[in-house]
C-alpha cells in the first residue's frame, strides 16, 4: 500500500529536523477513515516489504512512536531527494521495534534457538548486518488510535468492520508474497490468532506461525513466566521450521 506520492506535498510542509507532534500529524490531512472513536491515519511505515525475508515479525499496527519516526524519516528523505523506494525502506528500518521491546524480543528469540537455525551469533543481527532475512510488519498497515490512544487489539475487536477491512486486505497481500518457508513471529495473542486465521484461510503451508511467544513489551509482567512455561515448545517449533527451511540456504 504505497501512497507516499499522494502525501508528498503534505509531508514536505512538515517541520524538518525535529521531533513531530500529534497536533502536526494526527490531522484531517492524514486521516484515512474514522468510525466512531476509531481513527486510522496514513503513515509511510508499512509500504516497503522485503520479499526475500525468512523471518516475519508482526505487531498489531504502527504506534505513535513508529508513526512519528516514519514521518520524520520521510520528511528528511524528501528534503534530500532520495528515491522513493529508499525513503520507504528507511521509514521501515528506522521506525521498527526499538528500545526495550527489541532487546526483550532478541533475548527471547535467542533463548529458543532461532539464531542457531539461521547460523547467526544472535538474533540481534537480524536488525543489523543480516536484515535481509527480516521483514517487520503489522496486521493493520496504518496507525490506529482509539480515543487518541494507540490501538491495542481490543475494544473494539479486530473484527470491527473498518479494522477487519484493512486487516484482510493488507495482511493477506503481505503473506501472498512469500512462496518459500517463512517463520512468522506474532507479537501478542491477538496477532497470533488473526495471523493463524488468515494463514489457514489462504492455505499457506509454507508459513509457520510461532505459537505461544509472550509479547516482548516491558509492560508485560507475564513475559518471563510465560517463557519458562512455553520455552521448550517454542524451541521445538523453531527446530521444525529449521528442518523445513533448510538452514544452510537460510543463511545464504
Notes on the structure:
- The chain has 252 residues and is an alpha/beta fold.
- The chain has one domain: Uracil-DNA glycosylase-like domain (Uracil-DNA Glycosylase, subunit E, 3-Layer(aba) Sandwich).
- The protein has helices spanning 4-12, 22-25, 64-79, 84-95, 99-111, 114-117, 161-175, 189-202, 223-245, 247-251, and strands at residues 31-35, 38-41, 55-59, 134-138, 144-146, 149-150, 182-186, 207-209.
- The chain has a 4-stranded antiparallel sheet, with no helix packed on it.
- α8 links the parallel β7 and β8.
- α3 (64-79) packs antiparallel against α4 and α7 crosses α8.
- The longest helix has 23 residues, at 223-245.
- It is globular.
- The model has no long low-confidence stretch (mean pLDDT 92).
List the helices and strands and how they pair.
Layout (H helix, E strand, L loop, with lengths): L3 H9 L9 H4 L5 E5 L2 E4 L13 E5 L4 H16 L4 H12 L3 H13 L2 H4 L16 E5 L5 E3 L2 E2 L10 H15 L6 E5 L2 H14 L4 E3 L13 H23 L1 H5 L1
Parallel strand pairs: 3-4, 3-7, 7-8
Antiparallel strand pairs: 1-2, 2-5, 5-6
Helix pairs in contact: 3-4, 7-8
Organism: Neobittarella massiliensis (ex Bilen et al. 2018)
Protein name: Uracil DNA glycosylase superfamily protein
Gross morphology is: globular
Residues in helix, %:
40-55%
Number of strands: 8
Question: Kindly, what is the distance between the CA atoms of the first and last residues, rounded to a whole number of angstroms?
Answer: 29 Å
Oligomeric grouping of the chains: single chain
